[in-house]
Amino acid sequence: MKVLVVVDMQNDFIDGTLGTKEAAAIVPKVAEKIQNFDGKVLYTRDTHEENYLETQEGKNLPVTHCVRGSKGWELNPRIEALCEEKPIDKPTFGSKELGRKLQNMDEEYRLRGMGGLESITFVGLCTDICVISNAMIAKAFLPEVPVIVDAACCAGVTPESHSNALEAMKMCQIICE
Q1: What b/e readout covers 44-56, taking b as 16+ CB neighbours within 10 angstroms?
Q2: pTM for this structure?
Q3: Is the bond leading into 126 cis (omega within 30 degrees of zero)?
Q4: Mind listing the pLDDT tens digit for each residue in 19-62?
Q5: What is the rounded (10 degree) CA torsion for 111, 100, 136, 61?
Q6: Do residues 128 and 162 touch, judged by C-beta distance below 8 A?
Q7: SS3 content of the chain, % helix, strand, coil (to 5)
């Protein structure tokens, strides 16, 4: 079984408070990737509360974003239309819940004689923060499963930080296509 993880394709990262033209440009590519993917698709959603500015992240990035229940927190409408199960809400860059879910899926498929997870592919936002964090978590939870990042379906805070994140992931044996 192949898994596609769609990371934080939310309004605030696309055309909201932290949006970029690069993020907006990948929306059609991510939608096409989801539509054509032969496997299980999981979604994550950056999720903050009203006290965001009081958190460590908020002190380091003092731009309120992805507050639970806000329009910016919601998945982009084009991506939301393709979402078949509730996203994994994550209050931090990386999601331990995602790591556990992937590990449990791998164990379940092995127990059912289906050979475990074949690969885990990541797409979404932002390459240099949440994509890299969650790809590394997947690698830590399932070190023998190939972890892939589709670079054309990701965007970073800047084009340079996107490229830097891809290079860092390659050094950690994550396949960047």
Answers
A1: bbbbbeeebeeee
A2: 0.98
A3: yes
A4: 999 999 999 999 999 999 999 999 999 999 999 999 999 999 99
A5: 160
A6: yes
A7: 45, 20, 35
